[in-house]
Amino acid sequence: MPALLRTGVLEAVAYRAEMLVWALTSTMPLIMLALFGTVARDGPLGRYGVPQFTAYFLATFVVRQLTSSWVSWQINMEVRDGTLSVRLLRPVHPVMAYAAESMAAMPLRAAVSLPVAVVLLAFVGSQQLAADPVLWLLWGVSVVGAWLISLFVSLAIGALAFFIEQATRVMDVWLTVYFVLSGYLVPVDLFPPAARVANDFLPFRYQIGLPVELMVGLHGRAEALSLVGRQWIFVLMTALIVRVVWRRGLARFAAYGG
What we know:
Elements: H1 2-14, H2 16-24, H3 28-40, H4 50-67, H5 71-81, H6 84-89, H7 94-104, H8 106-124, H9 133-159, H10 167-181, H11 193-199, H12 204-215, H13 221-255
Helix pairs in contact: 1-7, 3-4, 4-8, 4-12, 5-9, 9-10, 9-12, 9-13, 12-13
């Protein structure tokens, strides 16, 4: 793993311009901040006034940088052009290699999100962020869980390339639903009550909304612990899905002489 991580960091540095482009594609929370900030000047929406929206969407930008994964596009390409065969000859499981490459990009993503975090503190002040150190500990656990769910979902959808021609189309559909239901574009607690209840049993909120909610202190300790527990159930479920889809897909890949 150390060797894989070192290689991944070198690749991320070598393709830092591409990494910057990926980062710039995730600026939608800043656009939503301008939109909701304008609306909130006429009166708060639920618990959100202008300072609360500012804290929420800047936190969303930070969390998005730390938890996103783009492995599905790489797997889809490597299955189609046959270069996955090279990975299969190496003494490291390809899934581990993909995970290490994704993890190795974190330092550069953190470098992008750090200035936003500084702006968050400077403009909204610490009073808009969680003050309880236990919530910050749970936030760290939730960020790891959110990254793992994103990674496993991306791996599972990428592995669909063993069965269908363009797995990236499935990823596009997933991302569309994710943008709506995860809290990325609209805070989850502004959803209608029925939608909020249904969303608790879907993985999208736990990919980004939960870490953001913990970061801005929307939950007490007991509720936060319960939500993080649910999140890690989704971590285990998505890991199992990856295992099943990858093994069946790999058997199909080998059968066709990939």
